[in-house]
Amino acid sequence: MEHPENNEAYKGLVVNAGIEQPSSVNPYLKRKVKKRQLSVNEFVEGIVKGDVTILSQAVTLVESVRPEHQATAQEVIERCLPYSGNSIRVGISGVPGAGKSTSIDVFGLHVLEKGGKLAVLAIDPSSERSKGSILGDKTRMEQLSVHPKSFIRPSPSAGSLGGVARKTRETIILCEAAGFDKIFVETVGVGQSETAVHSMVDFFLLIQLAGTGDELQGIKRGIMEMADGIVINKADGNNMDKAKLAAAQFRNALHLFPAPDSGWTPRVLTYSGFYNLGVKEIWDMVYEYIDFVKGNGYFEYRRNEQSKYWMYESINEQLRDSFYHNAKIESMLQEKEQQVLKGNLTSFVAAKSLLDTYFEDLK
Ligand code: GDP
User: Fold this and answer.
1) Are 93 and 136 in contact (CB under 8 A)?
2) Of 149-163, 204-218, 228-242, which has the strongest mean pLDDT?
3) Ligand 1 within 6 A of 94 CB?
4) pLDDT at 130
């Protein structure tokens, strides 16, 4: 039971009538001290100064579903935009168990040896269901999580994949404004989330494993086509030969794909994240790629294309939100769905009637 003294109306001392009630001396009195939210100016100044606490708070706003938080977040992002863009953004994908966290830990330490600051973000479309993402979880990256120049943030969990991805993209902008010049975006190798990550990074790194004998069948062609580099992890001990064989198979398979627009020929390397073997070569490849595409103009072209993509994604997301949160639509949706399921209405007629109602309501 709640202690009666925790009730604010409770006065510890009873005084006679006519005498002023002294202030409460109850040490258990719960005072709800509401933390004042920072202003847009304070957010922007803090972020640009590289204050990680303020950066974290801003990311929390970006992730919030409350409209007033979203409004502030959008203003902060807009003001941070001029300070953003100066980074290398790398997408890192692989199935669970491929060694993403082990690898990101060593990759991260390696790139930080050259100076700069690293942010590790994540897109995990399953996090909505599992209530919390494991990707980007600090505990999985033991060394990086205590490194003073790193910022690790798990996947935003609310909403559709499009919504989750948008939030991560906005977080990239804030991190860049805070001086993070290397950004890793981690994702699980399941398909759609790769497309989302690919749409916000400069280099897409696919982590693969050897040893199953039919590794090529397991990955979707689309994912391989997106990769700027494929790296076979766990090339250590008895696994070395299998890893080399897998690398050869991947190289052969890549030849069958049309040449990428970047003009870059995707490479296949083997490494061991756990034993820190071959890690330098992977990052030499990434930097070589960046030099290459900066030289031929593709780097800027791809970033512009990504901005365009996100403009349309943003429009789509907001239209969808506005439609599904419309009170009339909310009240009609179930019924129409049932009619379609029972065969009383075709999908198209149901959709048209809902859309007509929506557009009518907007007038
Ligand atoms: P994630 O699910 O993709 O994040 O994978 P983890 O990083 O958690 O790794 C999965 C398992 O593979 C762990 O038991 C790691 O210790 C192991 N592992 C990761 N990298 C290597 C490696 O380079 N060599 C070997 N032998 N094992 C590794």
Assistant:
1) no
2) 228-242
3) yes
4) 54
